[in-house]
Specification:
The complex is a heterodimer of chains A (442) and B (124).
Chain A lengths: L12 E5 L3 H16 L5 E5 L18 E2 L1 H10 L10 E3 L1 E6 L2 E6 L7 E3 L17 H12 L2 E3 L3 E7 L2 E6 L5 E2 L2 E4 L22 E4 L1 E6 L2 H7 L3 E5 L6 E8 L3 E8 L4 H8 L2 H4 L11 E5 L2 E5 L5 E2 L2 E3 L12 H19 L3 H34 L1 H16 L6 H11 L4 H8 L2 H16 L2
Parallel strand pairs in A: 1-2, 1-12, 2-8, 5-15, 12-21
Antiparallel strand pairs in A: 3-7, 4-7, 5-6, 9-10, 10-11, 13-19, 14-17, 14-18, 15-16, 16-17, 20-21
Chain B lengths: L7 E3 L4 E3 L7 E15 L5 E7 L4 E2 L2 H4 L7 E14 H10 L5 H24 L1
The chains are: A alpha+beta (442), B alpha+beta (124).
Chain lengths: 442, 124
């Protein structure tokens, strides 16, 4: 493929539409790398949300889990998440099924998963004690030199083969590169329907998130620093989790056509009731939302001088969306600074990162299919519970099932790696043994 | 705010890594300070330096297969995050620029060691 020589140079201007994690990571890494290369690049980030305001105006609607692998990668990048932003460090998972519950401890007994709010917190937040995760990253991008423009983008125009960004009542601003990092829930998506290239919006599905105020002390007492995950035999429910934050807990449901009936069946199940304080009133909820998540990425999220990152490009299936935002943002930024900004550059250097995620998602679909089968078979659920519980009790035993479940729930490892581990003879032999015991009912 | 503190808290004097032991991870200091020590003659400790918030230690284990070259212990209360070798190398394979900061840190430490050698030779 012949390159057309489009490059960023000293004095180039980059416009970023969307100042969530993907947009902020992109700005941080682009400015950092440009600085290392001795280039002075101007970055404007268009983000209408105010991350100091609780509720929908400052929230990007997500479960708010920063995976173990992302926490480590960010630390290696010099981005250490402070306790003023991380509302709770997660050091274990409690797996709940109708056949029992088991605690899976973090491999190093260390808090390496962060529970955050994307904004400062739910609509009825009584006191702002923690900062917004998105706001924290936005401030880091500002420290690196990005300029945040608190306006919604009205239009993307093209003049002399260069993109322009127009906000309401503003003059179009020309850029050498426009990076799109809007979420799949964002109204900005309609901006791209008229663009003259092969951008196909990702396929999405609806999720459900509900917040409850319990207060810090009560959360510590009943949920502790464990994330609670549920594998229940409820039709259409793929996965459910209760995530303890600072003063609130987030209930997150993933599945097909999540509606009131499914939510009610989940909230009224004995496994969920057992996690909340005795006699808890489930109608005493704070805000809730039904955000869409990307389940099949865009097929070609780039063109000359334009690149889509994060949710509107390619993301991981069901898990670690912020980790995928980091990976795609970093890859797009390094491509833009070190290689170029033409469609060929993005195809050669940016697309492989997206393709890796897409390929891994295909294996993830198989893994979730197997999880669904386990959810529907009581014998299989008992075998999984038994194998995990035994591993957790035996200090020196290999934690094969525990690590498979840990990585599936946390999104810390690629699905391919988890899948390969489930094929090991030792894993299969022990699972077969536990299945046999479950069948005989011992 | 302590509920949101990521990593593990070590008390003053608590050993985080031990010279001569095998290592499979490096560490990033989230809060506080640690001191880096090596065993000198007659078990006398020689302090090589103090590392503070945001700094790495134990990074040699990421790149070589040798045992830990020094002992690191908390100087006051210190909160430290572990970075697994496997996770780090998997990510470096996809994005080599992740190693920039590490290479930068190691390069600075080599420079400091060179200056220290020169200083010792001048005094010797």
């Amino acid at each position: 493929m012949v390159k057309n020589g489009l490059q960023l140079d000293d004095g180039s201007r980059v416009g970023v539409i969307g100042g969530g994690p993907a947009g902020s990571f992109f700005s941080i890494f682009l400015l950092d790398l440009a600085d290392r290369m001795g280039m002075d690049i101007e970055v404007d980030v268009y983000e209408p949300r105010d991350y100091t305001r609780p509720g929908p105006v400052g929230c990007n609607m997500c479960g708010g889990i920063i995976s173990e692998s992302l926490v480590q990668n960010l630390a290696a990048e010099g981005i250490n998440l402070p306790p003023t932003v991380v509302q709770r460090g997660i050091d274990s998972y409690m797996l709940h099924m109708d056949v029992g519950s088991v605690r899976i401890e973090t491999p190093l007994q260390e808090k390496r998963i962060g529970a955050v709010y994307r904004g400062p917190g739910p609509r009825d937040l009584k006191e702002v004690k923690w900062g917004s995760f998105d706001g924290y990253l936005q401030n880091l991008s500002i420290e690196k030199g990005a300029k945040v423009i608190n306006q919604r983008v009205d239009e993307i125009l093209w003049e002399d083969k260069k993109p322009q960004i127009k906000v309401r009542k503003g003059e179009p601003q020309p850029y050498d590169l426009v990076t799109i990092s809007v979420g799949v829930n964002s109204a900005s998506r309609k901006l791209f329907s008229n663009l003259n290239f092969e951008y196909e919006t990702p396929k999405t599905t609806k999720t459900f998130i509900q917040e409850y105020y319990l207060g810090e002390d009560q959360i510590q007492e009943v949920l502790g620093s464990s994330m609670h995950v549920f594998l229940l035999d409820l039709p259409r429910l793929e996965f459910a989790a209760i995530i303890p934050k600072g003063d609130y807990v987030s209930v997150c449901l993933l599945g097909e056509d999540i509606d009131k009936e499914l939510i009610s069946n989940f909230m009224n199940s004995p496994e969920v009731k057992a996690v909340f304080p005795p006699g808890w009133d489930f109608d005493a909820k704070s805000c809730n939302c039904s955000p869409r998540i990307n389940i099949a990425g865009s097929k070609r999220p780039f063109d000359d001088r334009i690149v889509f990152i994060g949710d509107c490009g390619v993301t991981r299936l069901y898990k670690d969306g912020i980790g995928a935002a980091y990976r795609t943002a970093k890859s797009a930024a390094t491509t833009a600074v070190l290689q170029g900004i033409s469609v060929q550059d993005f195809e050669e250097y940016y697309w492989p990162a997206c393709r890796n995620i897409n390929t891994d998602n295909m294996i993830g679909q198989v893994m979730f299919l197997v999880t669904r089968i386990i959810q529907g078979q009581r014998i299989a659920r008992r075998a999984v519970l038994r194998m995990t519980a035994n591993e957790q009790e035996e200090a020196d035993s290999a934690k094969r099932m525990s690590m498979v479940l840990w990585d599936m729930f946390t999104g810390s490892a690629p699905y391919k790696e988890i899948f390969v581990r489930t094929l090991s003879p030792a894993f299969l032999a022990r699972l077969a043994g536990d299945l046999a015991i479950s069948v005989t009912g011992r | 705010m302590t509920n949101g503190a990521l990593g593990k808290v070590y008390q003053d004097g608590e050993v985080i890594i031990c010279e001569g032991e095998e290592g499979h991870c490096m560490y990033v200091i989230q809060e506080g300070e640690v001191e880096v020590l090596i065993a000198g003659e007659e078990d006398k400790e020689i302090r090589l330096g103090v590392r503070g918030e945001g700094e790495f230690f134990g990074e040699m284990a990421i790149f070589d297969r040798d045992v830990r070259s020094a002992t690191v212990r908390a100087k006051g209360e210190a909160r430290v995050l572990t970075v697994d070798k496997k996770n780090f190398m998997r990510r470096v394979h996809e994005d080599p620029s992740l190693a920039f900061r590490l290479v930068e840190t190691m390069s600075r430490r080599i420079r400091e060691l060179g200056e220290e050698v020169a200083r010792l030779q001048n005094h010797g």
